[in-house]
Amino acid sequence: MRNRCTRTLCLLSVSVFIGLPTSLAAEIPVVRGQLQASAPELVEGLFVILGAAPTQKLSQVDVQTDGSFEFLDIAFGDYVLRVTDGFGLTVCQKFVTIRDHMPELDVRLPERESNGAGTGAATVSVTQLMHPPDKKAVQAFKSALRFSSAGKYENALSELEKAIHISPEFAEAHSNLAVQYFRMGRFEESIAESAQAIQIGGPDPLNLCNLAAAQAQLRRFAEAEKLARAALRLDSDYLKANLVLGSILVNEPATRGEGIRHLEKAAAEFASAREFLEQLRASR
Q1: Number of compact structural domains in the chain
Q2: Residue 231 pLDDT more than 80?
Q3: What sign does the dihedral 122-54-147-46 (CA atoms) show?
Q4: pLDDT in tens, 75-90
Q5: pTM (global) more than 0.70
Q6: Does a structural domain hold residue 81?
């Protein structure tokens, strides 16, 4: 699956999973990776963040001058890997599965425009251009990252609320606040924040999937299905959307076949999808 390039300020993982939980019984002592860029200077000052399901912490490491990076003692499971710059701006992201005897993680950075502004196909809405986040809002994001890494989600939530109070049009803060609310089971508030992020920055697969997952938790399956399908229309290769949609569709006999096909596609990246499929087959 190709790397996902986003406009998200990724100081917190904005990924949620509604499939079966991944086993955390085993871990790999060292996970090594390599950033691939068209020029060596493009990797300078970058960080790699590895985030997973809501109950797990984030890990962040520096990228070395040769583009290499490594994480220590990472539990097996599905993760979202993000590359960010010194301001917390996401350069690119991809979904990875950490497992035994895995190869080195290979992450290709998108080409930057000739004037140095922007990356790849990432876009920024007019609203975001007119209302860039204040430096104090970005500082609150960094503080939220530290709290989240320590498992202090209430503190992280407070820092995100502070960022939004300083910069109300900070779409990425709304996205990440939605995840914190999801972690705490505050699904209505999670929905509101994801919707606000979409209103400011425009629809994108990541926020649509987070919105769909929260709707599914409230058993609003018709709306959740519509949102997951919208994410796939934007990016047919976005496997998280296949995971979310498949998890919804398999619950009804009339749509179970389509749901299984989506889960089979998601299983290429998500262990939770593979486990879900195994449980479905065992129940027949």
Answers
A1: 2
A2: yes
A3: negative
A4: 888 787 888 765 556 6
A5: no
A6: yes
